[in-house]
Amino acid sequence: MRPPNTIFCPLLASVVAGLLAGCADLNDTGLAALSSKVAAYAIVDEQLVQGEMVLFPDHTGTITLRAEVVPVGMAVPAASAPTPTDKPVMSSCVGRLRYTGSTAGLVDLRCNDGAIADLRMALIGDTRGYGYGYTATGLASVVFGFKPVEARAHLTVPTGKQLLERTEGGGLELR
Fold this sequence. Notes:
Elements: H1 4-33, E1 36-44, E2 47-56, E3 60-66, E4 92-99, E5 104-111, E6 116-125, E7 128-134, E8 139-144, H2 148-151, E9 163-165, E10 172-174
Antiparallel strand pairs: 1-2, 1-8, 2-3, 3-4, 4-5, 5-6, 6-7, 7-8, 9-10
């Protein structure tokens, strides 16, 4: 006959592991339920991308940005700068935010064209902030939680271009 401990210990370990996994799922669900979504804009290597930042109560966040896609059959605006043929076109960027203090944070931004930027953020509220950094080939700036007109004041606009607020559909346009 086996001692009771040899049966009980593996069973107890399984129950504890199940409870911990359940707690982790509950924590993720709770963070998602208490998260805030705000508008986000960035200029990376002289290209505008825009989307949203999701901020979590544990002082982290995610950012998802996309470049404006010109529908098939529509003419590309004359003011658009041609992109070099040897470099992939930037169409999206994603990243993670983590607070490093009560009014500071870091965003690690990664774009589909290979651009990588670590941006130092100044947080001016629970759902608003702006930051600056560098990629291997240029500057990067990002803002979140601002209306388009406010965002323009904090983004680094390339020389010879203008950052305009769109009249239709909201958002910003880089010309």
